[in-house]
Specification:
By secondary structure, the chain is an alpha+beta fold. Helix content is about 65%, strand content about 10%. About 5% of the residues are buried.
Length: about 170
Protein backbone atom coordinates (compact mmCIF):
# COMPACT_ATOMS: atom_id res chain seq x y z
CA UNK A 1 0.00 0.00 0.00
CA UNK A 2 1.53 3.32 -1.05
CA UNK A 3 0.88 6.51 0.84
CA UNK A 4 -0.06 9.62 -1.13
CA UNK A 5 2.59 12.36 -0.89
CA UNK A 6 1.78 14.90 1.79
CA UNK A 7 3.13 18.33 2.61
CA UNK A 8 4.91 18.46 5.97
CA UNK A 9 5.64 21.69 7.81
CA UNK A 10 8.58 21.16 10.13
CA UNK A 11 9.33 23.74 12.80
CA UNK A 12 12.87 24.06 14.11
CA UNK A 13 13.12 25.15 17.72
CA UNK A 14 15.97 27.08 19.35
CA UNK A 15 17.14 23.86 21.03
CA UNK A 16 17.59 22.39 17.49
CA UNK A 17 14.67 20.00 17.84
CA UNK A 18 12.52 19.53 14.76
CA UNK A 19 8.74 19.25 15.09
CA UNK A 20 6.50 17.86 12.32
CA UNK A 21 3.20 19.75 12.55
CA UNK A 22 1.38 17.20 10.36
CA UNK A 23 2.05 14.28 12.71
CA UNK A 24 2.35 16.42 15.89
CA UNK A 25 5.64 14.70 16.78
CA UNK A 26 9.31 15.50 16.97
CA UNK A 27 11.27 14.24 13.98
CA UNK A 28 14.96 13.57 13.29
CA UNK A 29 17.00 14.48 10.22
CA UNK A 30 16.80 10.82 9.22
CA UNK A 31 13.01 11.01 9.50
CA UNK A 32 12.96 14.04 7.22
CA UNK A 33 15.23 12.21 4.77
CA UNK A 34 12.77 9.30 4.76
CA UNK A 35 9.88 11.69 4.04
CA UNK A 36 11.75 13.20 1.08
CA UNK A 37 12.69 9.74 -0.25
CA UNK A 38 9.02 8.73 0.01
CA UNK A 39 8.05 11.70 -2.16
CA UNK A 40 6.57 13.95 0.52
CA UNK A 41 7.06 17.68 0.26
CA UNK A 42 8.67 19.32 3.24
CA UNK A 43 9.18 22.86 4.41
CA UNK A 44 11.33 23.62 7.43
CA UNK A 45 10.89 26.96 9.17
CA UNK A 46 12.47 28.61 12.19
CA UNK A 47 9.78 28.65 14.89
CA UNK A 48 10.94 32.02 16.26
CA UNK A 49 11.06 34.14 13.10
CA UNK A 50 9.49 31.98 10.37
CA UNK A 51 12.60 31.97 8.13
CA UNK A 52 12.69 29.12 5.62
CA UNK A 53 15.40 26.63 6.61
CA UNK A 54 14.52 23.90 4.13
CA UNK A 55 17.75 24.15 2.12
CA UNK A 56 19.89 24.25 5.26
CA UNK A 57 18.25 21.14 6.69
CA UNK A 58 18.47 19.26 3.36
CA UNK A 59 22.18 20.15 3.20
CA UNK A 60 22.65 18.80 6.73
CA UNK A 61 20.97 15.56 5.66
CA UNK A 62 23.26 15.18 2.63
CA UNK A 63 26.37 15.85 4.76
CA UNK A 64 25.23 13.42 7.45
CA UNK A 65 24.68 10.71 4.83
CA UNK A 66 28.13 11.39 3.34
CA UNK A 67 29.77 10.89 6.73
CA UNK A 68 28.16 7.46 7.04
CA UNK A 69 29.53 6.19 3.70
CA UNK A 70 32.76 4.22 4.27
CA UNK A 71 35.87 5.91 2.92
CA UNK A 72 37.18 4.55 -0.38
CA UNK A 73 40.53 5.09 -2.05
CA UNK A 74 41.85 5.42 -5.55
CA UNK A 75 40.32 6.54 -8.82
CA UNK A 76 37.10 4.54 -8.30
CA UNK A 77 36.44 6.54 -5.14
CA UNK A 78 37.13 9.80 -6.96
CA UNK A 79 34.75 8.88 -9.79
CA UNK A 80 32.08 7.70 -7.36
CA UNK A 81 32.50 10.82 -5.24
CA UNK A 82 32.21 13.13 -8.22
CA UNK A 83 29.15 11.25 -9.49
CA UNK A 84 27.52 11.36 -6.05
CA UNK A 85 28.23 15.06 -5.71
CA UNK A 86 26.69 15.77 -9.10
CA UNK A 87 23.64 13.57 -8.48
CA UNK A 88 22.98 15.01 -5.02
CA UNK A 89 23.51 18.56 -6.23
CA UNK A 90 21.09 18.02 -9.10
CA UNK A 91 18.54 16.33 -6.83
CA UNK A 92 18.72 19.23 -4.39
CA UNK A 93 18.30 21.76 -7.21
CA UNK A 94 15.32 19.85 -8.60
CA UNK A 95 13.71 19.73 -5.16
CA UNK A 96 14.29 23.45 -4.61
CA UNK A 97 12.81 24.28 -8.02
CA UNK A 98 9.76 22.13 -7.36
CA UNK A 99 8.93 23.31 -3.86
CA UNK A 100 10.03 26.91 -3.67
CA UNK A 101 9.24 28.29 -7.15
CA UNK A 102 12.66 29.93 -7.31
CA UNK A 103 13.06 32.70 -9.93
CA UNK A 104 15.00 31.51 -12.96
CA UNK A 105 17.88 33.98 -12.45
CA UNK A 106 18.42 32.63 -8.94
CA UNK A 107 18.31 29.06 -10.25
CA UNK A 108 20.93 29.86 -12.89
CA UNK A 109 23.08 31.54 -10.23
CA UNK A 110 22.85 28.43 -8.03
CA UNK A 111 23.70 26.22 -11.03
CA UNK A 112 26.76 28.38 -11.79
CA UNK A 113 27.88 28.14 -8.18
CA UNK A 114 27.37 24.38 -8.22
CA UNK A 115 29.49 24.16 -11.37
CA UNK A 116 32.15 26.32 -9.70
CA UNK A 117 32.04 24.09 -6.63
CA UNK A 118 32.42 20.98 -8.78
CA UNK A 119 35.49 22.60 -10.39
CA UNK A 120 36.99 23.35 -6.98
CA UNK A 121 36.33 19.78 -5.84
CA UNK A 122 37.90 18.36 -9.01
CA UNK A 123 41.00 20.53 -8.50
CA UNK A 124 41.29 19.38 -4.87
CA UNK A 125 40.98 15.77 -5.98
CA UNK A 126 43.66 16.29 -8.64
CA UNK A 127 46.04 17.81 -6.04
CA UNK A 128 45.39 14.94 -3.64
CA UNK A 129 46.00 12.35 -6.35
CA UNK A 130 49.28 14.06 -7.28
CA UNK A 131 50.40 14.05 -3.64
CA UNK A 132 49.58 10.35 -3.37
CA UNK A 133 51.24 9.73 -6.75
CA UNK A 134 48.04 8.23 -8.16
CA UNK A 135 47.44 9.09 -11.81
CA UNK A 136 44.34 11.17 -12.44
CA UNK A 137 41.90 10.73 -15.29
CA UNK A 138 43.65 13.60 -17.11
CA UNK A 139 47.06 11.95 -16.65
CA UNK A 140 45.75 8.70 -18.10
CA UNK A 141 44.13 10.54 -21.02
CA UNK A 142 47.44 12.33 -21.78
CA UNK A 143 49.38 9.03 -21.68
CA UNK A 144 46.83 7.38 -24.00
CA UNK A 145 47.01 10.31 -26.41
CA UNK A 146 50.82 10.14 -26.45
CA UNK A 147 50.70 6.36 -27.02
CA UNK A 148 48.36 6.91 -29.98
CA UNK A 149 50.75 9.52 -31.41
CA UNK A 150 53.75 7.18 -31.01
CA UNK A 151 51.86 4.28 -32.57
CA UNK A 152 50.99 6.46 -35.56
CA UNK A 153 54.65 7.54 -35.89
CA UNK A 154 55.84 3.94 -35.76
CA UNK A 155 53.29 2.95 -38.36
CA UNK A 156 54.44 5.78 -40.66
CA UNK A 157 58.14 5.01 -40.15
CA UNK A 158 57.49 1.29 -40.66
CA UNK A 159 55.73 2.01 -43.94
CA UNK A 160 58.58 4.31 -45.03
CA UNK A 161 61.24 1.70 -44.22
CA UNK A 162 59.26 -0.98 -46.08
CA UNK A 163 59.23 1.24 -49.19
CA UNK A 164 62.97 1.88 -48.86
CA UNK A 165 63.68 -1.86 -48.56
CA UNK A 166 61.59 -2.66 -51.62
CA UNK A 167 63.44 0.02 -53.61
CA UNK A 168 66.80 -1.45 -52.50
CA UNK A 169 65.73 -4.94 -53.60
CA UNK A 170 64.58 -3.67 -57.00
CA UNK A 171 67.93 -1.84 -57.51
CA UNK A 172 69.94 -4.97 -56.59
CA UNK A 173 68.31 -7.05 -59.32
Amino acid sequence: MTVAPERHLIKKYANRKLYDTRTSRYITLEGIADLVRDGHEIKVVDRENGHDLTQVVLSQIVLTNEKRVPARTGIAAVDAGADALQERGQALLDYVRKTLNVPSDLVSQVERRRTDLEGVVEEAIERTLRRLRIPSRGDIDRVNKRLDELAAQLKRSGAASDRARSRTRKGAR
